[in-house]
């Protein structure tokens, strides 16, 4: 069960898929009590396909704090041909016990490769809160799926499990011998399904291998799985492995099963890791039944996952650059309707976003000196248009001290430049990329924060800049201010479809987009939750940072030894 108090012994800085700013003690009041992993299964879904069963996917939405707008959190994989899916892909969420986290699970029958959900058949939805799942008996919530009037849409089962802080992964490979033949015309098409046991004796699916076609002696590819997913860090917990024969129509034939544990598997390739595959039904019927084949562990390799914090402790520097949109689409700064309105009594939209995000960011930047750029304005004295000018007016040294220094330079610029256009992102991205390309040894990582009203003019060039920058130690955070539709920004974010330019895909996802309006109250004057804004702005940075280090094979430097003050010997006079 989940502890409803914040554990004091929690390891700081262990980043999962979603990183919480609490890991850095920036906002100590909002450290999540725990991280939970949600597993989703459905029973008796609607059948929307004429000649086969539905191909379901589950999409999870969370609710924004201010305007209660639903925002997509993530998607499971698609499972073909089934009305009773057990999804393998999990949702990992921070569980703040003091906050009500509304959730919505939507189900679709996927008909094509399009990521656009409106192109697929809606199968219904379920609403609940994270607390409802965690608080259910065994943290297992079963609810009816609703949303299609007059139809029974089936049920959904969501299970929550608190995640331990185990950071090891294992690379394993299996083969099998003399499996039962299940197909009439050919041999079997076997695959393995791994389940970890839960505290109540039930099982949760945690991995599926690929299918090896037409053989009774398959060798599966090696696969990597976190120890947390395999056994939640409990080395003696039962792991059940089922062997199936794949069928195109989704009705896979059960060949048999065996059980093991992490501790047993960790012995590696040995006589202890050859398992008899048993089919209980056959065993009960046939006296001479021995087994339905054997499965052998071929290799077992433990890898300790390094975290973002390991690199920071080892001395990697994070360098932040700020770029502000000075284009005419923001409105005349002397008018109250402008996003750049210079109100003597309160911050404008840019000022609020800059202060809110900047105050979070400056905790990660060691020297607190930020290059601050503007783009899309006409500069004095000759009125030339610039897409990368220094806010402090010094192109040789565009650095400002702290966020207060950036704010000061921003307001000074507003008084002396003319808002113009077009809105070109590529020059400021290329500006930071020039610096990032000169330091590729892992000692520095660059983050560009662009604050914009979202009306972009150089989409093709920006995509090309991002694809090129994806090879460099850098990330781009885009904060959208104002009421515009941010479709172009969502496209640059690349969470649903990886960004590409001229047929070349980005090596990794380096853009995170956040609409600022989701975090402010109706009056537009107050940030509702700095903690949530912090989390969502920085959520993808650690993983983007780690993906660069992993691809380049860069390991963190060892942390310097803790400082011990010299010991002064006090001489006592006798």
From TrEMBL:
Superkingdom assignment: Eukaryota
Protein purpose: Probable calcium-dependent phospholipid-binding protein that may play a role in calcium-mediated intracellular processes.
Family affiliation: Belongs to the copine family.
Domain C2: 20-143, 152-275
Lineage of source species: Eukaryota, Metazoa, Chordata, Craniata, Vertebrata
Keyword RNA-binding among UniProt keywords: no
Entry keyword annotation includes Metal-binding: yes
InterPro entries reported for this sequence: C2_dom, C2_domain_sf, C2B_Copine, Copine, Copine_C, VWF_A, vWFA_dom_sf
Pfam families, sorted: C2, Copine
The species this protein was found in: Crypturellus soui
Keywords: Calcium, Metal-binding, Phosphoprotein, Repeat
Entry protein name: Copine-8
Domain VWFA residues, every copy: 319-520
Gene Ontology CC, one term: plasma membrane
UniProt GO MF annotations: calcium-dependent phospholipid binding; metal ion binding
GO BP, sorted A to Z: cellular response to calcium ion
């Amino acid at each position: 069960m989940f502890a409803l108090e914040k554990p004091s012994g929690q390891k700081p800085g262990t980043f999962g898929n979603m990183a919480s700013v609490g890991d850095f003690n920036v906002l100590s009041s909002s450290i999540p009590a725990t991280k939970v992993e949600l597993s989703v299964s459905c029973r008796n879904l609607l059948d929307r396909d004429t000649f086969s069963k539905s191909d379901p996917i589950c999409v999870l939405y969370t609710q924004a704090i201010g305007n209660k707008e639903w925002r997509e959190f993530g998607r499971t994989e698609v499972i073909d041909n089934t009305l009773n899916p057990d999804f393998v892909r999990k949702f990992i969420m921070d569980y703040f016990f003091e906050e009500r986290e509304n959730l919505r699970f939507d189900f679709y029958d996927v008909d094509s490769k399009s990521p656009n959900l409106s192109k697929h058949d809606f199968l219904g939805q379920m609403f609940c809160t994270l607390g409802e799942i965690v608080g259910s008996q065994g943290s297992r919530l079963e609810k009816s799926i609703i949303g299609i009037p007059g139809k029974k849409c089936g049920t959904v089962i969501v299970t929550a499990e608190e995640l331990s802080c185990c950071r090891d992964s294992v690379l394993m490979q299996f083969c099998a011998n003399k499996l039962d033949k299940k197909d009439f015309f050919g041999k079997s098409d076997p695959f393995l399904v791994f389940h970890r046991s839960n505290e109540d004796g039930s099982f949760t699916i945690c991995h599926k291998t690929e299918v090896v076609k037409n053989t009774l002696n398959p060798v599966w590819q090696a696969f990597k799985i976190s120890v947390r997913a395999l056994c939640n860090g409990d080395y003696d917990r039962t792991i059940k492995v089922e062997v199936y024969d794949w069928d195109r129509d989704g009705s896979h034939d059960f060949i048999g099963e065996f059980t093991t544990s992490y501790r047993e598997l960790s012995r590696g390739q040995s006589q202890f890791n050859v398992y008899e595959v048993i089919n209980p039904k056959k065993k009960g019927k046939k006296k001479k039944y021995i087994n339905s084949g054997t499965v052998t562990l071929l290799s077992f390799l433990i890898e300790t996952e390094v975290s973002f914090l390991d690199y920071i402790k080892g001395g990697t520097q994070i360098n932040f650059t700020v770029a502000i949109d000075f284009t005419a689409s923001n409105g005349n700064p002397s008018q109250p309707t402008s996003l750049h309105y210079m109100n003597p009594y309160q911050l404008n939209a840019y000022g609020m976003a800059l202060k809110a995000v900047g105050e979070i960011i400056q905790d990660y930047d060691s020297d607190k000196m930020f290059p601050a750029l503007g783009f899309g304005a006409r500069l004095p004295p000759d009125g030339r248009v610039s897409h990368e000018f220094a806010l402090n007016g010094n192109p040789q040294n565009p650095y400002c001290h702290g966020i207060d220094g950036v704010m000061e330079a921003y307001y000074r610029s507003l008084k002396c430049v003319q808002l113009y256009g077009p809105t070109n992102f590529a020059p400021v991205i290329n500006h930071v990329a020039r610096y990032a390309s000169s330091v590729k040894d892992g000692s520095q990582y660059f983050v560009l924060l662009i604050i914009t009203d979202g009306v972009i003019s150089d989409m093709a060039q920006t995509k090309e800049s991002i694809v090129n920058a994806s090879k460099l130690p850098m990330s781009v955070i885009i904060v959208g201010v104002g009421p515009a539709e941010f479709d172009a920004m969502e496209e640059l974010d690349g969470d649903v479809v990886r960004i590409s330019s001229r047929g070349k895909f980005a090596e990794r996802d380096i853009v995170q987009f956040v609409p600022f309006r989701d975090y402010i109250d109706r009056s537009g004057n107050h940030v509702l939750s700095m903690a949530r804004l912090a989390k969502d702005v920085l959520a993808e940075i650690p993983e983007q940072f780690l993906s660069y280090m992993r691809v380049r094979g860069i390991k963190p430097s060892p942390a310097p030894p803790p400082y011990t003050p010299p010991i002064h010997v006090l001489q006592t006079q006798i």
